[in-house]
Structure formats: C-alpha cells, structure tokens
Amino acid sequence: MQDTQIAIQKWKVWLLAIRPKTLTAALIPVAVGVALATTQCLEINWFLALLCLMCAFSIQIGSNLINDAIDFKKGADTETRIGPTRVTQSGLLKPKEVMIAGLGSLSLAILFGIPLVIAGGSAISFLLVISVCLAYLYTAGPFSLSYLGLGEIFVFLFFGLVATAGACYIQTHTVTLSSLVAGTQIGFLATLIIAINNLRDHQNDAKANKKTIVVRWGPTAGRLVITCCAFAPFFINVYWFFQGHLAAGLLPMVTLPVAMALVRSIWQVDPHPIYNRFFGFAALLHLLFGLMLSGGLLL
User: Which residue from 12, 184, 186, 223 puts its CA 20 to 30 A from 194's CA?
Assistant: First the structure.
C-alpha cells in the first residue's frame, strides 16, 4: 500500500512538471490547421492529424521539462518566484532526471514525426528538426532563446505558424495564405501566454540575467506586447469575412470581452501572485478563440 501511495505521489509530481494546463498551446494550432484543411480537401487523414498533435504535445512537454531544470540551475527559479510551483526548484525532482525526461519527450516528437515526414516530405522533415532543436534551445544551450529575449518569437513561430500551417499542409500538401493567417492569429495568442509569464517573473529573470523583453525594456514594453498579442487576432479576423467564411469571422469575436478584461487587468495591476490567474485567463482566451475559429471553419 505504501509503495502504491509513493507511486501515485510521484505520478502527481511528474504531472505537475509537464504543466498540463499549458498543453492547449499545442492542441489549438493543430485543431485549427486540421479544421482549415477540411475547407480545402474532401477527406482528412485522422491518423496523421493525431500524429501532428502528439508531436506538438511532445515538443511542448520536452520544452517545459528542460525549462524547469535549466531555469533552476541558472537561478531564474528561486524560492522568491511568484509563479506556479516548479518541481526542480521545489526539490520534488532532481534536475538531472527532469532534463532526461525532457530530452526523452523531444525524442518522442521525432518518433511521432517519422510518419509525418514520410507523408509530407522534406518540408516537414526540415520543420520537425528545427522545431525540436529550438525547443531544446529555448532554455538550454549556450545561446538560450529565452535568455536572449527571443522566447516570444519562438512561441509565435512554432505554436503559431509552424504548428497551424504544418497541420494543414500534412492534409493538403499546400501552404496557403489562409493557413498563414490562421497561424498568425493563434501565434499571437500563444505569445500572449508567455508574455504574461515574463511580465510576472521579470524581477527574478533580471537577477538571473534572463533578458526577456520586460527585462530589456521594462514593464511598460511588456504590457504593450501583451496588448498587441491580445487584440491583433481580432483585427486579423476580418480576413475570414473576405474569404467568405462568415462563421469563422464571427464566432471568435465572442471571446473579445475576455481579451479586453485581461488587458485592462494587466495595466491596472503590478506583477503579483494574481498574475497566475491572468496567465490562466490568457490560456483560456487562446483555447476559446481557437475552438471558435475551428468551429467556424468547419461550418
């Protein structure tokens, strides 16, 4: 019985480590990409769609785990952080085992990606290799993207353009303007999540020499990035009306009040534990907008 309880506790710790609440950032671009593909082809290969999703999940989980281990080693995650619990910093897991698990998750992404490469050719092969490498380099390596202030760009590109257009390309074998527009919308909302995270943590990041946008240019710049990322997808949404996708143009607009409330709160409140709630609202906005856009495209 005791061994079973220990195993359950260990499982809960690993679940905490992979940050399941953030995985919608991988789910939504694939869902939108597949939904868009239904407007261009008669039949969807759901096995390939599932592999796209598993590949995106594996890349995000790998990046989350490596981030957990490296941020602790570099001093960005300390007992003074106001964000959610990090398993390495809190001593729940050792940095080495978290790092190994992260590398294992990225290896799974490659494994899931093999049939995608066979189906999609050299373009998918290139995107897969680049995505896995950048997921590692997001926090690790001598030129860590997040420590150079390039984290938002990586999130926008991978969890926006690459994942959305890539999921559509696997089905249609074409890259269209519509897939890039949809990827841009989802990319902005995925970037919104990390931008709030960086504004919340900027004091600890500065001590660890993690030169995020907020650390480089201050909280006002961080708030401007958040404002842009929150509202840009709604302006871009006009595109779907011109393409004749009226439902895709209308349905996501129901989430605009969430974006407005979130931006207003960010400007009114300085970094504080309540930012963990704002982080959750950003993830919710990303999820709802993506589901509305997907539903609109399917209609």
Answer: 12
Which residues make Cβ contacts (< 8 Å) with residue 139, sequence separation at least 6?
63, 66, 67, 70, 71, 145, 146, 147
Query: Would you say the pTM of this structure is higher than 0.90?
Result: yes
Q: Is the pLDDT of residue 4 over 70?
A: no
Rounded alpha-carbon distances, angstroms, from residue 209 to 168, 216, 224, 245, 274? 38, 10, 22, 46, 24
Distance CA 40, CA 181 (A): 15
Taking the C-alpha atoms of residue 115 and residue 262, their distance in angstroms, rounded to an integer, is: 40
92, 13 Cβ separation under 8 angstroms: yes
Q: Which two tokens stand for residue 272?
A: 């504080």
Provide the 10 A C-beta neighbour count for residue 141: 14
The pLDDT value recorded for residue 146 is 83
Q: CB–CB of 171/34 below 8 Å? A: yes
Local confidence band at 2 (pLDDT 50, 70, 90 cut-offs): very low
The residue written with tokens 């679940």 in the block is 15
